[in-house]
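#struct-pred
JK: can someone run the complex with zinc ion? inputs below
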Amino acid sequence: MGGGGNMSSKIEEKKNIAKRVPSSKPPFTIGDIKRAIPPHCFERSLIKSFSYLIQDLVLVSIFYYIANTYFHLIPTPYSYIAWTTYWIAQGCVGEGIWILAHECGHHGFSDYQWVDDTVGLILHSALLTPYFSWKHSHRRHHSNTASIENDEVYKPRIKSKLRWYYKYLNNPLGRLLILAFTLTFAWPLYLLFNVSGKKYDRFASHYYPYSPIYSDRERLQIYISDAGVIATTYLLYRATMIKGLAWVFASMGYPSLL
Ligand SMILES: [Zn+2]
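RT: done, structure tokens with the ligand placed:
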């Protein structure tokens, strides 16, 4: 009897969920939305885009110059405040540069595909992101956003398939831990091992040209993306040899984490 009641309440719960989830097509198309946006919003100005990039590069250079030239003169504990301020400021502007490369991946930087891909490749490689690899997977993320089956990343989790330990994380401290983990390790783990990404039947990685994420047409560009990341890694290695690991982390590592 009790079991039957349980069953009917479960059916009722499923019906309520079904009511909340829009399953029918909306009464408008993407074309309708695009037509409603003023045409000038779709214009891509090369000069305007480069002005944003130069502005960010100038700020990054100024922050770096100040830290490199004056911070060793500041006594502790004031130097801790100075470095923390630097990491936050440099991290914010660095994120802006990363976003400009993201726009290049969407062909939103200029009218010229080759300009967008060249700028995007240089900027994302400098920030250790494989440009084309992420550009292709990210495009599929936008065309399948929030799809349980087909989204490339940020796949909504099904309650019945949550791992056993999630019930212990459903509290403020647990959420804080998840947030801290997501902000530090989630991005590299996604790129390296497709953690939290769409499920594939074999090994998937943004650095592996024969990964099932990519079509045969895209594989050459994955090699180019890897070469960009390797070039930056080599420059960081050279910088570490000259200035030391602590300096590389303080001036570049922590801002990119923030
Ligand atoms: Zn995007």
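RT: quick notes.
The radius of gyration is 23 Å.
Residues 45-257 form one domain.
JK: thanks, will look after standup
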